[in-house]
Amino acid sequence: MTAHVVVGVDGSPSAEAAVRWAAEDAFRRGCALRIVHVSEPWTHDSRLETPAGFLESLAERSEAALDATASLAREHAPGLAVETSSETGRPVEVLRREAEGAEQIVVGSRGRGGFTGLLLGSVSLALAGHVSVPVVVVRGEQGRVYGEVVVGFDRSSESEAALAYAFEEAVRRGARLRAVHSWELPVFATGAAAYTPLVEDVFASELGLASEALVPWRKRYPGVEVEETVVYGHPVGVICEASATADLVVVGSRGLGALGSAVLGSVSHGVLHHARCPVAVVRASEETPVEAEEA
């Protein structure tokens, strides 16, 4: 299979929601969908005696889950090319391997069976930032379309990657883009936060810098309606509030370090835990698309 989106399934309602989301995403991208079900290795390698037909029943369960979700995907996106794969191993390791060559990885916010332990948070820590492709965690009620993509940005390389993904998603969906930028006073100035002129000056500066950062993106995507939101304080609350009327939230990851929290950063980690719609975590590349185009 060439261009494709990968979705991990385990038969849970959350996985079914992920399949529906992934099917729509693959259809919009004009690529195929690869559905992967993973059986934990202990079920095959356990030294304990297992009942006759136990392993066969596990294989049948995996195939049944794949058949059901493949049918769901085809019903949800008629004409979509769908491929299934039954794997044995640790789910995170399998999905990291599946990420190679994929457009992105899609998982549900809560799992069971083959994805035991991949609860909200564990998915982000185990996958986001550790694979080169975007990781989408599907959560929140599905079905209603708001026509808005929300992206958090702070002028870093991580947020540049998030902006690139968010603008492309807005184009594919024909949606408007809400770009959220937050700012805080320097540590040495926090005692002066009560002085209105200082806060106003910093706010005006941040507003100008945020608008300037979006200029090249507006030029590259003139057909996308962009709404800028600049706030004082931590962005998690603002982004999560905006997620209530968004179809997708996009955040960046550092893609560095061994600890998941260090890789994701507090914003991505907090948004994954509290957003009310699907969240895409995008890893920063060495060169942003806008910079590459202008070079």
Q: How does the SSE layout of this entry go?
A:
Layout: E1 4-9, H1 13-29, E2 32-39, H2 42-45, H3 54-76, E3 82-88, H4 91-98, E4 105-108, H5 122-126, E5 135-138, E6 148-152, H6 157-173, E7 176-183, H7 196-220, E8 226-232, H8 235-242, E9 248-253, H9 260-274, E10 279-283, H10 289-294
Parallel strand pairs: 1-2, 1-4, 2-3, 4-5, 6-7, 6-9, 7-8, 9-10
Antiparallel strand pairs: 5-10
| Percent of residues in β-strands | 15-25%
How many discrete structural domains? 2
- Largest sheet properties: 10 strands, mixed
Backbone shape: elongated
Q: How much helix, percentage-wise, in residues?
A: 40-55%
CATH fold topology of the largest domain: Rossmann fold
**Spatial extent as radius of gyration:** 21 Å
Number of strands: 10
Number of helices: 10
Class from secondary-structure proportions: alpha/beta
Can you describe what's shown?
This protein is α/β, with parallel strands linked by helices and about 300 residues long. The chain folds into 2 domains: about 5-120, Rossmann fold, CATH 3.40.50; about 150-295, Rossmann fold. The protein is about 45% helix and about 20% strand. The chain is built from 10 helices and 10 strands. It has helices spanning about 15-30, 40-45, 55-75, 90-100, 120-125, 155-175, 195-220, 235-240, 260-275, 290-295; strands spanning about 5-10, 30-40, 80-90, 105-110, 135-140, 150, 175-185, 225-230, 250-255, 280-285. A 10-stranded mixed β-sheet has the order 3-2-1-4-5-10-9-6-7-8, sandwiched between helices. Helix 1 packs across helix 3 (about 55-75) and helix 8 (about 235-240) packs across helix 9 (about 260-275). The longest helix is centred in the C-terminal third of the chain and has 25 residues, at about 195-220. It starts with a strand and ends with a helix. The model is unreliable at about 115-120, about 255-260 and about 290-295 (pLDDT under 50).
